[in-house]
Amino acid sequence: MIYFDNSATTACLREASEAAAEYMREQYFNPAAAYAPAVKAERDLSSARAVVAGEMGAEPGELVFTSCGTESNNTALFGSLAAMRGKGRVIVSSTEHPSVYEAAIELRERGYDVVFAPVDITGAVSLEALKGLLTPSTRLVSIMHVNNESGAVNDVNAVFSLVKRVSPECLVHSDGVQAFMKEAPVRCDLYSVSGHKLHAPKGVGALMIKKGVRVKPYLVGGGQENGMRSGTSNMPGIMAFSAAVSDFAAHRAEYRASMLAVKKRLYKNLSLIRDVKLNGPDPDLGAAHILNMSFMGVRGEVLLNALSEKGLLVSTGSACASHKRGKNRILNAMGVTGDRQDGAIRFSFSHFNTVEEADIAAGMIEEQVNLLRRFRRR
Ligand code: PLP
To answer: Which helix (H) or strand (E) holds 271?
Structure first.
Protein backbone atom coordinates (compact mmCIF):
# COMPACT_ATOMS: atom_id res chain seq x y z
CA MET A 1 0.00 0.00 0.00
CA ILE A 2 1.14 3.54 -0.74
CA TYR A 3 -0.42 6.09 1.59
CA PHE A 4 -0.55 9.58 0.07
CA ASP A 5 -3.38 10.96 2.27
CA ASN A 6 -1.40 12.34 5.19
CA SER A 7 -3.40 15.57 5.32
CA ALA A 8 -6.40 13.46 6.31
CA THR A 9 -4.46 11.73 9.06
CA THR A 10 -1.04 10.21 9.70
CA ALA A 11 0.31 6.94 11.03
CA CYS A 12 1.09 7.17 14.72
CA LEU A 13 4.80 7.34 15.43
CA ARG A 14 6.15 4.42 17.47
CA GLU A 15 7.49 6.79 20.18
CA ALA A 16 4.07 8.45 20.36
CA SER A 17 2.13 5.20 20.65
CA GLU A 18 4.60 3.94 23.29
CA ALA A 19 4.12 7.15 25.28
CA ALA A 20 0.32 6.75 25.03
CA ALA A 21 0.54 3.10 26.15
CA GLU A 22 2.72 4.01 29.11
CA TYR A 23 0.27 6.67 30.28
CA MET A 24 -2.66 4.29 29.86
CA ARG A 25 -1.15 1.24 31.53
CA GLU A 26 1.45 2.42 34.06
CA GLN A 27 1.29 6.18 34.57
CA TYR A 28 -2.49 6.25 34.47
CA PHE A 29 -2.91 8.66 37.41
CA ASN A 30 -5.08 11.73 37.28
CA PRO A 31 -2.69 14.71 37.32
CA ALA A 32 -5.20 16.60 39.49
CA ALA A 33 -4.91 14.04 42.33
CA ALA A 34 -2.72 14.70 45.37
CA TYR A 35 -0.48 11.59 45.82
CA ALA A 36 3.07 11.23 44.52
CA PRO A 37 2.42 9.37 41.20
CA ALA A 38 -0.19 11.99 40.32
CA VAL A 39 2.25 14.77 41.09
CA LYS A 40 4.64 13.16 38.61
CA ALA A 41 1.81 13.04 36.05
CA GLU A 42 1.19 16.74 36.64
CA ARG A 43 4.89 17.46 36.09
CA ASP A 44 4.83 15.43 32.87
CA LEU A 45 1.77 17.36 31.72
CA SER A 46 3.65 20.62 32.31
CA SER A 47 6.65 19.35 30.35
CA ALA A 48 4.41 18.31 27.45
CA ARG A 49 2.77 21.75 27.51
CA ALA A 50 6.19 23.42 27.39
CA VAL A 51 7.26 21.25 24.43
CA VAL A 52 4.16 21.92 22.31
CA ALA A 53 3.93 25.63 23.25
CA GLY A 54 7.64 26.12 22.60
CA GLU A 55 7.28 24.89 19.02
CA MET A 56 4.56 27.50 18.48
CA GLY A 57 6.75 30.25 19.87
CA ALA A 58 4.39 30.53 22.85
CA GLU A 59 4.68 30.40 26.64
CA PRO A 60 3.46 27.19 28.33
CA GLY A 61 0.72 29.22 30.08
CA GLU A 62 -0.64 30.21 26.68
CA LEU A 63 -1.39 26.64 25.59
CA VAL A 64 -4.67 24.80 26.17
CA PHE A 65 -4.88 21.11 25.27
CA THR A 66 -8.09 20.17 23.46
CA SER A 67 -9.50 17.04 21.82
CA CYS A 68 -8.80 18.02 18.18
CA GLY A 69 -8.27 20.81 15.68
CA THR A 70 -12.02 21.20 15.30
CA GLU A 71 -12.44 21.90 19.02
CA SER A 72 -9.53 24.36 18.94
CA ASN A 73 -11.06 26.22 15.97
CA ASN A 74 -14.57 26.27 17.47
CA THR A 75 -13.20 27.51 20.81
CA ALA A 76 -11.12 30.19 19.08
CA LEU A 77 -14.07 31.60 17.14
CA PHE A 78 -17.02 31.17 19.51
CA GLY A 79 -15.04 31.56 22.75
CA SER A 80 -13.16 34.74 21.84
CA LEU A 81 -16.28 36.48 20.48
CA ALA A 82 -18.36 35.39 23.49
CA ALA A 83 -15.83 37.14 25.73
CA MET A 84 -16.34 40.49 23.90
CA ARG A 85 -19.15 42.97 24.37
CA GLY A 86 -21.45 43.55 21.38
CA LYS A 87 -21.26 42.17 17.88
CA GLY A 88 -19.30 43.33 14.87
CA ARG A 89 -17.56 42.11 11.76
CA VAL A 90 -15.87 38.69 11.51
CA ILE A 91 -13.64 37.93 8.51
CA VAL A 92 -12.63 34.39 7.58
CA SER A 93 -11.04 33.23 4.35
CA SER A 94 -13.26 31.50 1.81
CA THR A 95 -11.07 28.38 1.84
CA GLU A 96 -11.19 27.63 5.56
CA HIS A 97 -11.69 24.10 6.82
CA PRO A 98 -15.35 23.43 7.77
CA SER A 99 -14.46 23.69 11.47
CA VAL A 100 -13.89 27.42 10.88
CA TYR A 101 -16.18 27.96 7.89
CA GLU A 102 -19.26 26.39 9.48
CA ALA A 103 -18.53 28.19 12.75
CA ALA A 104 -18.53 31.44 10.76
CA ILE A 105 -21.88 30.55 9.18
CA GLU A 106 -23.26 29.90 12.68
CA LEU A 107 -21.89 33.28 13.84
CA ARG A 108 -23.72 34.96 10.96
CA GLU A 109 -26.94 33.36 12.19
CA ARG A 110 -26.18 34.76 15.64
CA GLY A 111 -26.04 38.28 14.20
CA TYR A 112 -22.37 38.86 13.39
CA ASP A 113 -21.46 40.60 10.13
CA VAL A 114 -19.52 37.66 8.65
CA VAL A 115 -17.57 38.20 5.42
CA PHE A 116 -15.37 35.78 3.50
CA ALA A 117 -11.98 36.94 2.24
CA PRO A 118 -11.28 35.83 -1.34
CA VAL A 119 -8.22 33.83 -2.39
CA ASP A 120 -6.12 33.87 -5.56
CA ILE A 121 -5.77 31.00 -8.05
CA THR A 122 -3.14 29.36 -5.80
CA GLY A 123 -5.52 29.36 -2.81
CA ALA A 124 -3.72 32.10 -0.84
CA VAL A 125 -5.67 34.98 0.71
CA SER A 126 -5.20 38.26 -1.10
CA LEU A 127 -3.89 40.83 1.40
CA GLU A 128 -5.25 43.65 -0.76
CA ALA A 129 -8.75 42.15 -0.66
CA LEU A 130 -8.46 41.55 3.08
CA LYS A 131 -7.45 45.18 3.59
CA GLY A 132 -10.61 46.26 1.77
CA LEU A 133 -12.78 44.17 4.09
CA LEU A 134 -11.25 45.38 7.36
CA THR A 135 -13.27 47.94 9.31
CA PRO A 136 -12.64 49.51 12.72
CA SER A 137 -15.50 47.34 14.05
CA THR A 138 -13.90 44.08 12.93
CA ARG A 139 -13.68 41.79 15.96
CA LEU A 140 -11.97 38.71 14.61
CA VAL A 141 -10.03 37.68 11.51
CA SER A 142 -9.40 33.96 10.94
CA ILE A 143 -7.00 33.03 8.15
CA MET A 144 -5.64 29.49 7.95
CA HIS A 145 -1.85 29.03 7.85
CA VAL A 146 -1.68 26.17 5.29
CA ASN A 147 -4.66 25.20 3.17
CA ASN A 148 -5.44 21.49 3.46
CA GLU A 149 -6.41 21.05 -0.20
CA SER A 150 -4.06 23.23 -2.23
CA GLY A 151 -1.07 23.46 0.13
CA ALA A 152 -1.16 27.27 -0.20
CA VAL A 153 0.72 28.98 2.62
CA ASN A 154 -0.81 32.22 3.88
CA ASP A 155 1.46 34.97 5.16
CA VAL A 156 -0.10 35.07 8.63
CA ASN A 157 2.56 37.49 9.93
CA ALA A 158 1.56 39.98 7.23
CA VAL A 159 -2.14 39.41 8.03
CA PHE A 160 -1.40 40.07 11.72
CA SER A 161 0.44 43.37 10.99
CA LEU A 162 -2.22 44.54 8.56
CA VAL A 163 -5.11 43.78 10.93
CA LYS A 164 -3.47 45.40 13.96
CA ARG A 165 -2.70 48.52 11.92
CA VAL A 166 -6.34 48.99 10.95
CA SER A 167 -7.99 47.69 14.10
CA PRO A 168 -5.65 47.14 17.07
CA GLU A 169 -8.36 45.48 19.17
CA CYS A 170 -9.27 42.96 16.49
CA LEU A 171 -8.11 39.39 17.21
CA VAL A 172 -6.26 37.29 14.65
CA HIS A 173 -6.78 33.53 14.66
CA SER A 174 -5.01 31.07 12.43
CA ASP A 175 -5.85 27.41 11.86
CA GLY A 176 -2.40 25.86 11.94
CA VAL A 177 -3.56 22.23 11.74
CA GLN A 178 -1.74 21.58 8.43
CA ALA A 179 1.16 23.90 9.19
CA PHE A 180 2.32 23.11 12.71
CA MET A 181 5.97 21.93 12.74
CA LYS A 182 6.06 22.07 8.94
CA GLU A 183 6.11 25.87 8.69
CA ALA A 184 7.81 28.45 10.92
CA PRO A 185 5.71 29.76 13.85
CA VAL A 186 3.66 32.89 13.13
CA ARG A 187 2.41 35.90 15.09
CA CYS A 188 -1.25 35.74 16.01
CA ASP A 189 -3.60 35.88 19.01
CA LEU A 190 -5.01 32.36 18.64
CA TYR A 191 -3.48 29.35 16.87
CA SER A 192 -5.03 25.89 16.47
CA VAL A 193 -3.19 22.59 16.03
CA SER A 194 -4.07 18.89 15.95
CA GLY A 195 -2.05 15.82 16.99
CA HIS A 196 -3.18 13.27 14.42
CA LYS A 197 -1.86 15.32 11.47
CA LEU A 198 1.59 15.00 12.99
CA HIS A 199 1.96 11.32 13.89
CA ALA A 200 0.24 11.52 17.29
CA PRO A 201 -3.03 9.63 17.86
CA LYS A 202 -6.48 11.04 17.12
CA GLY A 203 -8.19 12.79 20.02
CA VAL A 204 -5.68 15.45 21.00
CA GLY A 205 -5.13 19.01 19.83
CA ALA A 206 -4.21 22.37 21.27
CA LEU A 207 -5.12 26.04 21.10
CA MET A 208 -2.60 28.79 21.72
CA ILE A 209 -4.27 31.76 23.41
CA LYS A 210 -1.89 34.69 23.60
CA LYS A 211 -1.53 36.21 27.08
CA GLY A 212 -4.14 38.92 27.59
CA VAL A 213 -6.61 37.50 25.04
CA ARG A 214 -9.92 36.61 26.66
CA VAL A 215 -11.72 33.42 25.63
CA LYS A 216 -14.90 32.06 27.22
CA PRO A 217 -14.35 28.35 27.90
CA TYR A 218 -16.53 25.93 25.97
CA LEU A 219 -16.35 23.20 28.61
CA VAL A 220 -16.81 24.19 32.24
CA GLY A 221 -16.44 21.89 35.23
CA GLY A 222 -13.37 20.92 37.21
CA GLY A 223 -11.31 23.85 35.93
CA GLN A 224 -8.54 21.88 34.23
CA GLU A 225 -6.30 23.63 31.67
CA ASN A 226 -6.27 26.76 33.80
CA GLY A 227 -10.06 26.89 33.69
CA MET A 228 -10.04 27.00 29.90
CA ARG A 229 -11.06 23.40 29.22
CA SER A 230 -12.54 21.29 31.98
CA GLY A 231 -12.39 17.50 31.89
CA THR A 232 -9.77 15.05 33.15
CA SER A 233 -6.59 15.58 31.14
CA ASN A 234 -6.09 13.19 28.23
CA MET A 235 -2.64 12.18 29.45
CA PRO A 236 -2.06 9.36 26.90
CA GLY A 237 -2.96 11.69 24.03
CA ILE A 238 -1.05 14.68 25.38
CA MET A 239 2.13 12.70 26.12
CA ALA A 240 1.95 11.10 22.67
CA PHE A 241 1.46 14.53 21.08
CA SER A 242 4.49 15.86 22.93
CA ALA A 243 6.56 12.82 21.82
CA ALA A 244 5.52 13.34 18.19
CA VAL A 245 6.31 17.06 18.35
CA SER A 246 9.73 16.39 19.93
CA ASP A 247 10.54 13.87 17.20
CA PHE A 248 9.54 16.31 14.47
CA ALA A 249 11.55 19.09 16.10
CA ALA A 250 14.64 16.87 16.20
CA HIS A 251 14.35 15.99 12.49
CA ARG A 252 12.60 19.03 11.08
CA ALA A 253 14.94 19.80 8.17
CA GLU A 254 15.30 16.13 7.22
CA TYR A 255 11.51 15.47 7.33
CA ARG A 256 10.75 18.58 5.32
CA ALA A 257 13.37 17.76 2.70
CA SER A 258 12.06 14.21 2.45
CA MET A 259 8.40 15.28 1.96
CA LEU A 260 9.39 17.94 -0.55
CA ALA A 261 11.47 15.46 -2.53
CA VAL A 262 8.51 13.06 -2.78
CA LYS A 263 6.17 15.88 -3.77
CA LYS A 264 8.50 17.25 -6.45
CA ARG A 265 9.22 13.80 -7.86
CA LEU A 266 5.52 12.99 -8.11
CA TYR A 267 4.81 16.41 -9.65
CA LYS A 268 7.57 15.96 -12.22
CA ASN A 269 6.36 12.48 -13.15
CA LEU A 270 2.70 13.47 -13.35
CA SER A 271 3.48 16.57 -15.42
CA LEU A 272 4.55 14.21 -18.22
CA ILE A 273 0.96 12.95 -18.54
CA ARG A 274 -1.06 14.79 -21.16
CA ASP A 275 -3.67 17.33 -19.98
CA VAL A 276 -2.86 17.65 -16.30
CA LYS A 277 -3.02 20.86 -14.32
CA LEU A 278 -1.54 21.95 -11.03
CA ASN A 279 -4.04 23.36 -8.52
CA GLY A 280 -2.25 25.48 -5.97
CA PRO A 281 1.12 27.15 -5.64
CA ASP A 282 4.30 26.21 -7.44
CA PRO A 283 5.63 23.04 -5.73
CA ASP A 284 8.61 24.99 -4.36
CA LEU A 285 6.40 27.66 -2.81
CA GLY A 286 3.57 25.68 -1.22
CA ALA A 287 3.58 23.41 1.83
CA ALA A 288 6.09 20.56 1.45
CA HIS A 289 3.47 17.87 2.04
CA ILE A 290 0.52 18.81 -0.24
CA LEU A 291 0.14 18.53 -4.01
CA ASN A 292 -3.17 18.96 -5.86
CA MET A 293 -3.46 18.12 -9.55
CA SER A 294 -6.28 17.75 -12.05
CA PHE A 295 -6.44 15.01 -14.66
CA MET A 296 -8.64 16.50 -17.35
CA GLY A 297 -11.37 14.27 -18.73
CA VAL A 298 -11.32 11.99 -15.68
CA ARG A 299 -13.62 12.12 -12.64
CA GLY A 300 -11.61 12.45 -9.44
CA GLU A 301 -13.77 9.98 -7.44
CA VAL A 302 -13.52 7.38 -10.20
CA LEU A 303 -9.74 7.72 -10.37
CA LEU A 304 -9.53 7.63 -6.56
CA ASN A 305 -11.45 4.34 -6.47
CA ALA A 306 -9.39 2.82 -9.28
CA LEU A 307 -6.15 3.78 -7.50
CA SER A 308 -7.42 2.54 -4.18
CA GLU A 309 -8.00 -0.90 -5.73
CA LYS A 310 -4.35 -0.89 -6.80
CA GLY A 311 -3.24 0.05 -3.27
CA LEU A 312 -2.61 3.77 -3.74
CA LEU A 313 -4.57 5.87 -1.25
CA VAL A 314 -5.25 9.50 -2.18
CA SER A 315 -8.12 11.95 -1.80
CA THR A 316 -10.26 14.11 -4.01
CA GLY A 317 -9.31 16.90 -1.65
CA SER A 318 -12.81 17.26 -0.41
CA ALA A 319 -13.21 14.69 2.35
CA CYS A 320 -15.11 17.27 4.36
CA ALA A 321 -16.86 19.03 1.48
CA SER A 322 -19.91 18.01 -0.47
CA HIS A 323 -19.50 14.95 -2.65
CA LYS A 324 -21.79 16.42 -5.26
CA ARG A 325 -20.27 17.19 -8.62
CA GLY A 326 -18.86 20.67 -8.95
CA LYS A 327 -19.37 21.46 -5.30
CA ASN A 328 -15.86 21.64 -3.93
CA ARG A 329 -16.02 24.93 -2.04
CA ILE A 330 -12.24 25.29 -1.76
CA LEU A 331 -11.51 24.74 -5.45
CA ASN A 332 -14.49 26.94 -6.38
CA ALA A 333 -13.02 29.76 -4.29
CA MET A 334 -9.71 29.34 -6.16
CA GLY A 335 -11.51 29.58 -9.49
CA VAL A 336 -10.87 25.89 -10.25
CA THR A 337 -14.18 24.81 -11.75
CA GLY A 338 -15.80 22.48 -14.31
CA ASP A 339 -13.71 19.59 -15.68
CA ARG A 340 -10.66 20.80 -13.85
CA GLN A 341 -12.45 20.61 -10.53
CA ASP A 342 -14.01 17.22 -11.37
CA GLY A 343 -10.59 15.75 -12.13
CA ALA A 344 -8.80 17.06 -9.02
CA ILE A 345 -6.82 14.75 -6.75
CA ARG A 346 -4.96 15.73 -3.60
CA PHE A 347 -1.75 13.90 -2.70
CA SER A 348 -0.37 14.50 0.78
CA PHE A 349 2.86 13.14 2.17
CA SER A 350 4.69 12.34 5.37
CA HIS A 351 8.34 11.62 6.04
CA PHE A 352 7.47 7.92 5.90
CA ASN A 353 6.94 8.24 2.14
CA THR A 354 9.77 7.71 -0.36
CA VAL A 355 10.62 8.89 -3.88
CA GLU A 356 10.38 5.25 -5.00
CA GLU A 357 6.74 5.36 -3.92
CA ALA A 358 6.32 8.54 -5.95
CA ASP A 359 7.64 6.71 -9.03
CA ILE A 360 5.42 3.67 -8.49
CA ALA A 361 2.40 5.91 -7.80
CA ALA A 362 3.00 7.97 -10.95
CA GLY A 363 3.08 4.78 -13.03
CA MET A 364 -0.23 3.60 -11.54
CA ILE A 365 -1.84 7.00 -12.05
CA GLU A 366 -0.74 7.26 -15.68
CA GLU A 367 -2.09 3.79 -16.40
CA GLN A 368 -5.45 4.47 -14.75
CA VAL A 369 -5.83 7.94 -16.29
CA ASN A 370 -5.19 6.53 -19.79
CA LEU A 371 -7.64 3.70 -19.16
CA LEU A 372 -10.38 5.99 -17.83
CA ARG A 373 -9.91 8.45 -20.67
CA ARG A 374 -10.33 5.62 -23.21
CA PHE A 375 -13.58 4.57 -21.50
CA ARG A 376 -14.85 8.11 -21.56
CA ARG A 377 -14.27 8.49 -25.27
CA ARG A 378 -16.37 5.44 -26.13
N1 PLP B 1 -8.21 22.41 10.02
C2 PLP B 1 -7.62 21.87 8.95
C3 PLP B 1 -6.90 22.77 7.99
C4 PLP B 1 -7.66 20.50 8.72
O5 PLP B 1 -7.07 19.97 7.64
C6 PLP B 1 -8.36 19.68 9.65
C7 PLP B 1 -8.51 18.23 9.42
O8 PLP B 1 -8.63 17.77 8.30
C9 PLP B 1 -8.95 20.29 10.77
C10 PLP B 1 -8.86 21.65 10.92
C11 PLP B 1 -9.69 19.49 11.79
O12 PLP B 1 -8.79 18.82 12.65
P13 PLP B 1 -9.30 17.58 13.52
O14 PLP B 1 -9.46 16.43 12.60
O15 PLP B 1 -8.20 17.38 14.54
O16 PLP B 1 -10.56 18.00 14.17
So the answer is: helix 252-271
